[in-house]
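JOB MANIFEST
job_type = single_chain_structure
chain_count = 1
residues = 272
[input]
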Amino acid sequence: MNRKELIQQIYEKQSFLCVGLDTDIKKVPQHLLNEEDVIFSFNKKIIDATAPYCVSYKPNLAFYEAFGVKGLISFEKTIHYLKENYPNHFIIADAKRGDIGNTSAMYARTFFEEYDVDSLTVAPYMGEDSVTPFLGYEGKWVILLALTSNKGSHDFQLTEDKEGERLFEKVLRTSQNWGNEENMMYVVGATQGQMFEDIRRVAPRHFLLVPGVGVQGGSLEEVCKYGMIPGECGLLVNSSRGIIYASNGEDFAEVAAEKAKELQQQMSGLLK
């Protein structure tokens, strides 16, 4: 999916919501535990319920790899289900890969050829040659970690060099020599609030993947006030636990739909 198509989906659906599929067997409703593939059964119901209100899904690989081959089969079935039934939804594999060039090339082959997802989260710490192998796929996106929402983000990301440039700003500035706003996004945590202004000074037109709204305490209004690109949106705001685990009863899918719809309605107002 290219930038123009993504923007079109956002404005047609009046939503820039990404639903995170962080599926934990310990948290799914008890009545699903008898299913042959618990993870996929849960994902399928969540997807069917929330698809009208979101433009993207983000399965987090850690929640699938924890179950070995069975978990990866569930991940692959989820991707196939999305591509066959909801082909206009943007699929993000949240895997945070990144290694020396030949290793990154194999990661890129895995996610962009084998799984054929739209985008992949990538850690930029090892520099240009660890990122560029992901950028050679037409219509695919690299989503670089820039300024995250976890407490430990302050350990490195906000440290300054002798010129006063913070590490996350260096990541933003330097990486724009590798890719562009047509194939590169950045992860910026919703809890960073007004710092979205600083992000936009360095990367005014790149899409931002924004986790941390809801359970983690990020403000959707603040994110949009400081981070939205007029006429293009430029944001994919992710919610995981606040949607998929809003209920652990037999009504879990219906409640997930209600929570997704609430966010979509807020987003519609902010887009206008």
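[summary]
The chain has twelve helices and eight strands.
The radius of gyration is 18 Å.
exit_status = 0
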